[in-house]
Amino acid sequence: MPDRFRFPTRDTICNAGPMSNPQVTADPSSLGFDPSRFARIDDHFRPYVDDGRLPGWQVAIMRHGQLAYESTYGLRNIAEGTEWSTDTIVRMFSMTKPITSVAAMILYEEGRFQLKDPVSKFIPSFGESRVYRSGSFVAPVTEALTEPMRIWHLLTHTSGLTYGFHNNHVTDALYRQAGFEWGMPKGMDLEGACDAWAALPLAFQPGSEWLYGVSTDVLGRVVEVISGQSLDEFFRERILDPLGMTDTEFWVDPSKQDRFAELYFPKPTGNARGDGPSANAAVMPSAPLDKKPTMLGGGGGLCGTAADYLRFAQMLLNGGELDGVRILGSRTVDYMTRNHLPGGAELEAFGRPLFAETEFSGMGFGLGFSVELESAEHKIIGSEGSFAWGGAASTAFWVDPHEDLIAVFLTQLLPSSTYPIRGLLQQLVYQSLAD
């Protein structure tokens, strides 16, 4: 792995109290930044730890293929007093989704499917799906599909599939009743989960609305069926190993458990930071995640580091290639990162006003990413054409092709809607540009 994409090991980090000194591989001024303005990022987010809102955090910024700024603050495990270091491993949750989307498009480039193919071609149970029309979760009234659920519906979250934790619609209640809220029924694998979701009513006819849900998990099963491999095997062979993402997996090897961050919930009262062990037990049936889980969730199962995710993001920014290894064709990446909502609609108009890992105003959605359409409407400084996503534990990343810039933010507080971290981070990153 070239040094420009390698974070320092814990043995080489100089710690100042609970914060690691920033690590850079180039003079930030030569990359177009005013280095003195980076201090505003730390000054803003340090109090999140000091007053108990977050356990710890990490921010990394790359431009022109070089690490311009990186900083950590706080703890990855409060009970043990373990500092957050640059090689800390976290639950990525929905930052898994872009990786699953890339996996699918690798198969697309091989001619293994077309975007308009019905999902039932690969998962037959979806050919029997019904759509919610009226009634309660006790006695829902459904209707037949007028449009098959297609692969592009999965990639764009327009399938009608939902999440149980939305707590907003009858279909959400049906998911919870079936054991799908933040987790899965014990012992269920991805194949079983897909058949269970296919038997539950869709929230709407496919292609008619945008709704954040288990679409990317179903997409992960499509990858398994087409490739003949389990999702972790496909990821490792086609994406993770080629990109040198050595710390990214659906579990954390016992030899790396000392780097694995604890997961926290907000407290019901007082400071928002909660008790880690109870949060882990509630969200993940196997809290240590020290072996391969039964459920390989393409929508939220990976664990990994900032260094690994920077490599994935740099591959996308490079048009599908990194260090001489090509994962996707450049035209495919361009196609994935344009708005695919029907008629060029914005999420504000086409999406249900529920939780998602992005703002809705001024935003569209591509094949696996939110896409910035109009920064003036978004009301956060940025660039049209930037693409991004985040994770339920308040992690986030974005790629800005116009500025040749990548930013990654890691912490472990669930849910991500607890604080408006992402927009504030974005305005603090862009204010540091001076070229």
From TrEMBL:
It comes from the Bacteria. It holds the Pfam family Beta-lactamase. Gene3D superfamilies: DD-peptidase/beta-lactamase superfamily. Residues 41-417 form the Beta-lactamase-related domain. This is Putative esterase. It comes from Ilumatobacter coccineus (strain NBRC 103263 / KCTC 29153 / YM16-304).
